[in-house]
Amino acid sequence: MSHKEKLELFWKIVNLINEKHFDNKLIVNKICLFEEPQSKNGMYEGLGKSINIRDREEVDAQCITLCHELAHAYQEQILNKYYFEEMQKFGGLMKMDKWNLEEMFHGAKFKEVHEMFCETMKEIMGVQKV
Ligand SMILES: [Zn+2]
Which residues of the chain register pLDDT less than 50? Predict the structure, then answer.
C-alpha cells in the first residue's frame, strides 16, 4: 500500500470514529507518516493536534497505533478535566513518577476507549478486505 493510500485509509478511520463517537468534535489537523526505526510506533502531538504514525509496520498494526494515538487526542481534548483532576491526586504533573504517568495515560480508562476505537476501525478494515 502506498503512502497516499495509507493516509487516505487513516483519514477514513479518523473521520468515522469522530463522527460516530464525538459528533465530529475531535480535532485532528494532520496525520503524518515518519520513518525512524528506533522511534515509537506513533505519537499524538497536542499543540498541533497531529498524529504521527511510524511507517514500518503492516497496515493493520498501523491502524491499531492510529486508534491508540486517537485515544490520546480524546484524553487531551475531551477528558482534560478528568486527567487534570487525576494529576492533582498525585500532587501535580511534576510530582508524578514514570509509573504514575504510565498508569494515568495508559490505564483502564484509556484501554476502554482504545478498544472502542478499534471496533469502529475494524468496520472499515472489514470493508477494505472484501
Ligand atoms: Zn500512548
Answer: 130
φ and ψ at residue 4, rounded to 5 degrees: -65, -45
pTM: 0.90
Question: Of 10, 9, 8, 13, nearest to 116 (Cα)?
Answer: 13
Q: Which residues pair with 43 in a beta bridge?
A: 52
Q: How far does the centroid of ligand 1 lie from the alpha carbon of residue 130, in Å?
A: 31
3-129 has CATH 3.40.120 classification: no
Distance 78 CA to ligand 1 centre (A): 16
Q: How far is the CA of 106 from the centre of ligand 1 (A)?
A: 6
Radius of gyration of the chain (CA): 15
Ligand 1 centroid–CA 83 distance in Å is 14
What ranges do the domains of the chain cover?
3-129
Tell me whether residue 14 is exposed, middle or buried, using C-beta atoms within 10 angstroms of its C-beta: 0 to 12, 13 to 18, 19 or more: buried
pLDDT in tens, 55-89: 987 899 999 999 999 999 999 999 988 888 988 98
